[in-house]
Amino acid sequence: MTVNREFIGREYPASTTYEVGREHIRRFAEAIGDLHPAYLDPAAARALGHPDVIAPPTFLTVLNFRFATEGPVADPSLGLDYSLVVHGEQSFELHRPVVAGDVLTSVQRVDDVRDAGRNELVSTVIEVTGAAGEPVATLRGTLVSRGTAAPKGA
Amino acid sequence: MPTYDEVEVGTELPVGSYPLRRVDLIRYCGASGDANVIHWNQRVAQAVGLPDVIAHGMLTMAVAGRVVTDWTGDPGSLLSFRVRFSRPVVVPDDNDGAQLVVRGTVEDKLEGRQVVVALVATVGDSKVLAGARATVRLT
Fold first, then answer.
1. How far is CA A6 from the centre of its chain?
2. Do the interacting molecules here have an ipTM over 0.90?
């Protein structure tokens, strides 16, 4: 099954805000094996000039999964078999560090769906803003749907 | 912590070497919310054509980025970070897992006391990231 090109350009605003908690930051930091004190200890984070503990740079990937059920990947009409999916590319632009206590709003957009050989590539962008509407981060990701491209005509 | 003025193009960061074991993948499934079955179930991973369970790309990226944030001393110094996942990190069902070795080199110095670090991440002889670049602001 090929991925549905009609999804290109569709936007998916998260239905609720995402509240960044100290304990989730701690758990994420432990899971990546990085116990930098700026992630764990508010006093250490403040000594570096941050208002509270900050999240590791790739933390916002959690938004993909927190809002997975309402994003494009969860829509069966996209035609994406998640067991065939591997991550192709990812980028983070961080306008400022994510800080414990942040209440974040996010919108995911399907930027592109295209063939790459026998695979298909699904590119999405997530724009993340803070409680005051200020830009916090832009995440660009490409998923590879392995072997699902339509056969090329002779 | 390195300062912008003392860093030069070609400055090498301390090399990082980190194990990625099955238990690390399970922890990352829980912490990130990404429970894709290819990260914890060998039977399904092989059924969809992978050699074995593979690490989350995002876990590999997070671990690779640590070479940069450990170097600057402040993880909040990281402004942008991008990678391509060129080869999967296959994680065998043993006590050692895969050993990820990460090397960083200053590639460019920009305005605003920013520097670009090029990262090379390998498991054995295999480069698992391509085009990996992190931009940080130094003091």
1. 21
2. yes
Radius of gyration of chain A (CA): 18
DSSP B39: G
Amino acid letter, residue B65: G
Q: Is B24 on the interface with A (CB under 8 A)?
A: yes
Positive or negative, the Cα torsion across A94, A96, A100, A104? Answer: negative
Q: How far is B124 from chain A (nearest CA, A)?
A: 20
Q: Is A26 part of the contact surface with chain B (CB cutoff 8 Å)? A: no
Q: Tokens in use for B107?
A: 């590639």
pLDDT digits (tens, 9 = 90+) for B77-128: 999 999 999 999 999 999 999 999 999 999 999 999 999 999 999 999 999 9
Give the domain CATH number at A80: 3.10.129.10
* pLDDT for res A153: 67
> Exposure string (b/e) for A118-139, b if CB count within 10 Å is 16 or more?
ebbbbbbbbbbbbeeeeebbbb
Tokens 């298909």 belong to residue: A120
**Spatial distance between the Cα atoms of A69 and A66, rounded to a whole number of angstroms:** 8
Q: A130 lies in which domain range?
A: 5-20+55-145
Domain that residue B82 falls in: 16-20+55-137
List the single residue in A with minimal CA-CA distance to B77: A97
B64 is a domain residue: yes
Q: Which residues of A touch B57 (CB under 8 A)?
A: 86-87, 90
B15-45 per-position pLDDT tens digit? 999 999 999 999 999 999 999 899 999 999 9
